[in-house]
Amino acid sequence: AAGVIQSPRHLIKEKRETATLKCYPIPRHDTVYWYQQGPGQDPQFLISFYEKMQSDKGSIPDRFSAQQFSDYHSELNMSSLELGDSALYFCASSLRDRVYGNTIYFGEGSWLTVV
Amino acid sequence: GEDVEQSLFLSVREGDSSVINCTYTDSSSTYLYWYKQEPGAGLQLLTYIFSNMDMKQDQRLTVLLNKKDKHLSLRIADTQTGDSAIYFCAEDGGATNKLIFGTGTLLAVQP
Predict the structure, then answer these.
(1) Given this model, what pLDDT does residue B77 score?
(2) What angle do CA B46, B43, B13 make, to 5 degrees?
């Protein structure tokens, strides 16, 4: 079965540079989420989109922005990178179901290292 | 993870049962989830339970939910070395549909 696809899997950037992460949700899923997991930490919710509209916002820095495109893929743009942005970034997707709820599946993550 | 708590570490012998516990705070959560994360890997959805259920069994996994005490547990029967990983519980915060993760429990299975 198709899973959530993230690219790139690994990324090394210098401070103050910009990085873009891409996410391709499971086909027919209507909701995309972005999470950040720092070393030894639990994943923290950043932002989500439902049917291409932003649906919820978490602890996402102002330097970060995200969007969901017409084909439902999503991109997370991170500018003015700081050392503390080094983390594993997860994308997840789900299909909202009024009966069965909202089972959320995660991608393998994109490792961002800021040097 | 400040609203969802788990014990940090659990060590068991291969073949024993493992029980990983989680306490959460948001009583409006609709679903509660268990995810497994192996070193350097992504989050694998193991199982989930609807908030109006007390128990759910899925092969070697048994989830127990005590909604009154806001306590969730995951029991793994016949634990194998391949079960060694970090296990995260998560709540969906009700209508927000975003997951709030616990601190994670590192399960170490000794051969």
Answers:
(1) 97
(2) 60
Separation between Cα atoms, residue A89 and residue A11, nearest integer Å: 11
Query: pLDDT digit string (tens) for A97-114?
Result: 655 566 888 999 999 999
Residues 47..106 of B with a Cβ closer than 8 Å to A: which?
48, 50, 88, 92, 96-104
Cβ distance of A33 and B99 shorter than 8 Å: yes
DSSP A84: G
pLDDT (tens digit, 9 = 90+) per residue, A47-85?
999 888 998 889 899 999 999 999 999 999 999 999 999
- The amino acid occupying position B100 is I
In chain B, what is the straight-line distance between the N-terminal and C-terminal CA atoms, in Å? Answer: 31
User: Greater confidence, A87 or A103?
Assistant: A87
Asked if residues A3 and A91 have their Cβ atoms less than 8 Å apart, the reply is no
Q: Which residues of A touch B50 (CB under 8 A)?
A: 101
* Span B35-88, pLDDT tens digits: 999 988 889 999 999 888 999 999 999 999 999 999 999 999 999 999 999 999
Structure tokens of B4? Answer: 């969802």
For residue B96, the chain A residues in CB contact (below 8 A) are: 56
CB atoms within 10 A of CB A10: 10
